[in-house]
């Protein structure tokens, strides 16, 4: 039963930013607003949390990028280089919204000159019944070495992807997977728990953000259920 779904409304902060009558930067910050009759107190807290994060990013990161864009503009004009427009863009994706659990991730993209921008992903998963953010360990049976199991499964999936000389990862990916695995880099999907790594952690830029699905079931993560 896909019960207790949360209604999601999109909120947006965006602006074109000018310097000496030139549009040198633009930003778009998308964040969710949640509505639920069953969990409205928690929804109010989450709405305040995500709105505050969006506003803090706008007032801090965006303004820092704007300062950099002004310096880059003056340098480019002085040296007769093309003017490159800086950009900040944040979007969110709801990946699981049922069985008293809510999971989502944000992709934060910034372009500050150069060949391309950089995207950073971060995520949250909430147990609505218990009104708390859950950790990766909460999805596995107690006293299990879930980290080692996850790292092994990630490596197994990479090996399958690289068959036939289809190299999408760095040669030393096994070491990099072990060193860059972070237990807060996960979110839920209907198929299983999704583990992700940041750009350049284990693969070149062209590979994007690598993701790995760990199916629910025996020996793996537990399928989220409403708890009484």
Automatic annotation (TrEMBL):
InterPro entries noted in UniProt: DUF3298, PdaC, PdaC/RsiV-like_sf
Domain named Deacetylase PdaC: residues: 20-119
Residues of the DUF3298 domain: 137-216
Domain of life: Bacteria
Pfam family, one: DUF3298
Listed name of the protein: DUF3298 and DUF4163 domain-containing protein
Species of the source: Variimorphobacter saccharofermentans
Lineage summary: Bacteria, Bacillati, Bacillota, Clostridia, Lachnospirales
């Amino acid at each position: 039963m896909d019960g207790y779904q949360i209604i999601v409304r999109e909120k947006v902060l965006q602006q074109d930013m000018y310097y000496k009558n030139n549009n040198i930067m633009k930003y778009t910050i998308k964040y969710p607003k949640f509505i639920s009759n069953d969990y409205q107190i928690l929804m109010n807290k989450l709405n305040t949390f995500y709105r505050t994060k969006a506003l803090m990013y706008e007032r801090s990161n965006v303004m820092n990028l704007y300062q950099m864009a002004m310096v880059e503009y003056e340098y480019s004009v002085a040296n007769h280089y093309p003017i490159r427009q800086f950009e900040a863009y944040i979007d969110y994706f709801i990946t699981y919204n049922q069985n008293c659990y809510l999971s989502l991730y944000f992709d934060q993209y910034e372009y500050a000159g150069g060949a391309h921008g950089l995207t950073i992903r971060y995520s949250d998963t909430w147990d609505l019944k218990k009104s708390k953010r859950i950790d990766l360990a909460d999805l596995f049976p107690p006293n299990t070495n879930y980290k080692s199991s996850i790292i092994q499964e990630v490596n197994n999936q990479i090996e399958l992807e690289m068959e036939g000389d289809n190299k999408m990862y760095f040669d030393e990916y096994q070491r990099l997977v072990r060193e860059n695995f972070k237990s807060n880099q996960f979110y839920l999907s209907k198929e299983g728990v999704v583990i992700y790594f940041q750009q350049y952690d284990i693969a070149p830029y062209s590979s994007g953000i690598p993701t790995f699905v760990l199916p629910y079931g025996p020996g793996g993560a537990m399928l989220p259920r409403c708890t009484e």
